[in-house]
Amino acid sequence: MKNKTSKAMIKTKRLVFKYRKQLLAGKVIAIDPSCISGKDGSKPAYAVFQDGVYVEQGILDVKYTPLLAIRLQGIAECIRTHLTNVSAVIVEDTPYIPIRTKAQAVKSGKTYMNAKNIASLKQAIGAIKAAFQYGTPVIDVNPLVWYAIARQNGWTITKEDSDDARLIGLSVFKLLTETMTGEKPWLRQRKKQQ
């Protein structure tokens, strides 16, 4: 595992361990964020887990409008209306810098994200987090983390928004299982640093 992924994995494991009670007892929503870029573009997706068990997945059906602020308000309103009584939220985080060139994206079949795309997605993540009730725990999951877990477990990554939301949630519950059993060297490491 690469150093960047390893650091992100440790950070995620700490959050998962911290919020283990909320993850295991209640309704957890995993979200694959999007700022709804284009009429036929990506939309935010969710997966619902109840008491640690996968229940359903879907798309937050927010209509496209050219104004980003209106789209973000639509995302928040949709969450407040349809995703209620939540004990914890899992959200895919985004990179801080562009993640590949256009040529790399075409070659790999992955998404090209420039600085403007990242900034819009960060705003969408903010709107998503703010839409939930005050005090609801949020676990940010780096894409490198859930991709690595999906590959390790042989899960198919389809790049369908709702499938991604389900895999993001499943990866957190996989980490939860690991943190609840066996040694926790990532906890000891933190104590040594203090």
The averaged pLDDT comes out at: 84
How many strands, what sense, and barrel or not for the largest sheet? 5 strands, mixed
CATH topology: Nucleotidyltransferase, domain 5
Helical stretch tally:
8
CATH superfamily: Ribonuclease H-like superfamily/Ribonuclease H
Give the distance, in angstroms, between the N- and C-terminal Cα atoms.
25 Å
Oligomeric status: single chain
Strand content: 5-15%
Topology, pairings included?
Blueprint: H1 3-18, H2 20-24, E1 27-32, E2 45-50, E3 53-59, H3 68-82, E4 88-92, H4 102-108, H5 115-131, E5 138-141, H6 143-153, H7 161-180, H8 185-193
Parallel strand pairs: 1-4, 4-5
Antiparallel strand pairs: 1-2, 2-3
Summarize the structure.
This protein has 8 helices and 5 strands.
Describe this structure in words.
The structure is a single chain. Helix 3 runs parallel beside helix 5 (115-131). The protein has a single domain, classed as Nucleotidyltransferase, domain 5, CATH 3.30.420.10. The protein has 8 helices and 5 strands, in the order H-H-E-E-E-H-E-H-H-E-H-H-H. A 5-stranded mixed sheet has the order 3-2-1-4-5. The two termini are 25 Å apart. The protein is globular, with a radius of gyration of 17 Å. By secondary structure, the chain is α/β, with parallel strands linked by helices.
Question: Could you list some keywords that capture this structure?
Answer:
single chain, 194 residues, alpha/beta, Nucleotidyltransferase, domain 5, five-stranded mixed β-sheet, 8 helices, 52% helix, globular, disordered C terminus
